[in-house]
Specification:
Elements: H1 2-23, H2 25-28, H3 30-41, H4 59-64, H5 66-83, H6 87-105, H7 115-138, H8 158-173, H9 179-224, E1 232-239, H10 255-264, E2 270-273, H11 274-277, H12 290-295, E3 306-314, H13 321-332, E4 345-351, H14 356-377, E5 393-394, E6 400-401, E7 404-406, H15 407-410, H16 414-418, E8 430-434, E9 439-443, H17 449-455, E10 460-461, E11 466-470
Parallel strand pairs: 1-2, 1-3
Antiparallel strand pairs: 3-4, 5-6, 7-8, 8-9, 9-11, 10-11
Helix pairs in contact: 5-7, 5-9, 6-9, 7-8, 8-9, 9-10, 9-13
């Protein structure tokens, strides 16, 4: 008889499951629909091609990371909530939350009394939270609260986090026997929770607005000096601000270029951080890929147009929370704001020095004299007449190089004594190396090297931060 009842239960279960699947087919097919929609709607390009792709090789391992990822997110969220805001702000938010809860619930008990029900509530929060962050974890992008980008992945799970925390608070207060103490403690703890979350959101939002204010100040400056900057192609940003969310933005972030296009119109402009500008390699002009060049506004960008430095630094004061609210309110109402008001920022314009055409012409003349000398004598003039042909000197870093002849050696006509070439005069900063077999003639530590290394990449000398002429054997000197 018992076996018959078990069979009946099993049959009933499968019948009910079948009915549930038929009535909730969309719910059951959600994982399949998610994968198909993701595949169809994903832009098939090189940009973010595999940023959120499901890695099937790591699928099982990532699935086991869901629960630890949820608890780590809760831990980090609480740490940011309670330690990422000012004490004054937390106190004000707590008082407001407390009185709003009192008015809303009239002093009634907010939490569950039974410890069992509280644990169930906390478990529900865990389950819902794990499912909320499941898509991010499966693609290897779990919420990381210390990262601005990955930190956003906790947003779908915030209600679940709140349920979990309420369950934990309720379970803890269920052990308190005194009703009035338990009720008041519930109001206090929930008010603390709401205050910390609200203030954290407010401060993070204020930081985003501050960053926008900084960007808008740059756009405002470019608009204000539109006539003076009309022929500029490259704006090199020297961002010295502190206390703002981001800085040191790269081309692919599009922040600077986007603001400049907004301020000037047209697409013949590029904005680049000075640190990235200095890393542009020799013989390589930004991106060669057509897709990237179009996306980042490089396809219509003219590198030969004038370059200027825009240096932005903190002004007389850092915008407080109240000032941020006032500026954001004006902006949202369409009234705008005056970037120069109150001197929140100091922006200065600097012209980029371009002396390489003149210097390269002088070096070219000297290089021609060196080649003529070799035709007549069979070797290049030594950079140190006391040394033997082919001799070298040891640099402080241990590298080998010929003994150089520099501008200081030629002051007062010394060059004619050291090199038997009429009018072989080196300008300040010029250095000549030669062991007779090879030579290197460069302008060392050139002030416009960052520009010249791209404009005349074949003649740029990375080791000496300069440019000039040399033979193949002296290339690495």
């Amino acid at each position: 008889m018992l076996r018959g009842k078990i069979s009946d239960v099993q049959a009933s279960f499968w019948v009910e499951l079948s009915v549930f699947i038929k009535l909730n087919a969309i719910f059951v097919l959600l994982p399949v629909i998610f994968y198909v929609l993701k595949w169809v709607t994903t832009q098939h390009s090189q940009m973010y091609a595999d940023y959120n792709a499901i890695q099937f090789s790591d699928l099982i391992w990532n699935a086991f990371q869901i629960l630890p990822a949820f608890f780590k997110a809760v831990h980090d969220l609480l740490a940011v909530a309670f330690f990422g805001s000012s004490t004054k702000g937390l106190v004000i938010a707590f008082v407001i939350s407390y009185f709003l809860l009192i008015l809303a619930f009239q002093g009634r008990e907010l939490l569950l009394r039974g410890i069992g029900k509280s644990i169930v509530l906390a478990c529900m929060g865990i389950v819902f939270g794990c499912f909320a962050i499941l898509p991010y974890v499966l693609v290897g992008k779990p919420p990381i609260l210390t990262s601005y980008y990955e930190g956003r992945h906790i947003l779908p799970g915030l209600p679940a986090v709140l349920i979990f925390l309420l369950g934990c608070i309720s379970a803890g207060l269920a052990l308190v026997r005194h009703d009035r103490v338990r009720v008041q403690a519930g109001y206090v703890l929930i008010s603390c929770l709401f205050a910390s979350f609200s203030m954290t959101s407010m401060f993070i939002g204020a930081d985003v607005w501050r960053d926008w204010i900084r960007q808008d100040a740059i756009s405002g400056y470019v608009k204000k000096h539109a006539k003076e900057l009309s022929d500029v192609g490259t704006f090199i940003m020297v961002d010295r601000t502190s206390g703002y969310r981001v800085g040191d933005r790269q081309i692919w972030n599009y922040e600077y270029t986007g603001n400049l296009i907004y301020a000037r119109g047209g697409r013949g402009t590029l904005g680049v951080d000075v640190n990235e500008y200095r890393t542009w390699g020799n013989n390589e002009l930004l991106f060669h890929d057509g897709y990237y060049r179009e996306r980042y506004n490089i396809s219509q960008y003219d590198f030969s147009a004038r370059h200027v430095f825009l240096e932005i630094s903190n002004g007389d004061y850092h915008p407080s929370l109240g000032i941020v609210f006032a500026i954001s309110a004006h902006s949202l109402l369409g009234r705008g704001w005056e970037p120069d008001a109150g001197k929140i920022f100091d922006i200065a314009l600097h012209q980029e020095s371009r002396i390489y055409p003149e210097m390269m012409e002088s070096l070219r003349v000297l290089s021609g004299k060196l080649e003529d000398y070799k035709k007549n004598h069979g070797y290049y003039p030594l950079s140190n007449r006391l040394a033997q042909p082919g001799s070298v000197s040891l640099r402080p870093d241990g590298s080998i190089a010929p003994i150089p002849l520099s501008y200081t050696d030629t002051v007062g006509g010394g060059a004619d004594k050291l090199i038997d070439i009429p009018n072989f005069n080196l300008k300040p900063g010029f250095v000549y190396y030669s062991n007779g077999q090879d030579y290197k003639l460069i302008y060392r530590q050139a002030p416009d090297y960052d520009y010249a290394k791209i404009a005349i990449s074949k003649n740029s000398d990375l080791k000496n931060s300069g440019y000039g002429f040399w033979t193949e054997g002296a290339k690495r000197w």
